[in-house]
From TrEMBL:
Organism from which the protein derives: Chrysochloris asiatica (Cape golden mole)
CC terms in the record's Gene Ontology section: cytosol; mitochondrion; nucleus
Record's catalysed reaction(s): dTMP + ATP = dTDP + ADP
Record's protein name: Thymidylate kinase
PANTHER family in UniProt: THYMIDYLATE KINASE
Functional summary from the UniProt entry: Catalyzes the phosphorylation of thymidine monophosphate (dTMP) to thymidine diphosphate (dTDP), the immediate precursor for the DNA building block dTTP, with ATP as the preferred phosphoryl donor in the presence of Mg(2+).
GO biological process per UniProt: dTDP biosynthetic process; dTTP biosynthetic process; dUDP biosynthetic process
Enzyme Commission number(s) from the entry: 2.7.4.9
SUPFAM superfamilies: P-loop containing nucleoside triphosphate hydrolases
Domain of life of the native organism: Eukaryota
Amino acid sequence: MAGRRGALIVLEGVDRAGKSTQARKLVAALCAAGHRAELLRFPERSTEIGKLLSSYLEKKSEVEDHSVHLLFSANRWEQVPLMRNKLQQGITLVVDRYAFSGVAFTAAKENFSLEWCKQPDVGLPRPDLVLFLQLQLVDAMRRGGFGQERYEDKAFQESALRCFQQLMQEPSLDWKTVDASRSIEDVHEEICALSEATIQDAAHRPLGRLWM
Ligand SMILES: Nc1ncnc2c1ncn2[C@@H]1O[C@H](COP(=O)(O)OP(=O)(O)O)[C@@H](O)[C@H]1O
Ligand SMILES: [Mg+2]
């Protein structure tokens, strides 16, 4: 296995599409199949920046919109040395939300362009596979409704979904849309197959840089 790097696999999608469920199941399945795989999530709430973001998301604090966008990006950048290290060691990383959520959630606010929102994340490790868990918002809401955190309302999620769709149109990344309205097991099976193919593919390719 010497020289084989791990793959960077990202799960994106609206709230309740099943990202966290599928990310956990994917890591377990990859490990059971003999791969080395680990789970990451963004925001990573355990760091100092992550604690600021957690408090913001829980509406315990207010942060200016541009400023909080940069903090979400910084929260990804602070994990980059660890990510590169793990990937280099041959560990596949399954990431629950990444820069695309970061961009979509700020660009969904008034007076933010997609271009501006992307800039702080330019150069992050480029995912080898971006899985977009596609689910109608009405179906997502049937899975328990929204919680109390910031951004958890229908109009905002619709706006974020439109931003995701714009990002998906860019040809520079390998997006795979997965129908997330099916059973957990059916979605899992498709995600496993796509991930296995990506792991084989990525092993001998250098890790890229996002949006460069
Ligand atoms: N395919 C599915 N069908 C029905 N319910 C699901 C499915 N996937 C996830 N769920 C349920 O929907 C809720 C949200 O799932 P979660 O994985 O937390 O979504 P996300 O991380 O995208 O917000 C959870 O209660 C989960 O058990
Ligand atoms: Mg989740």
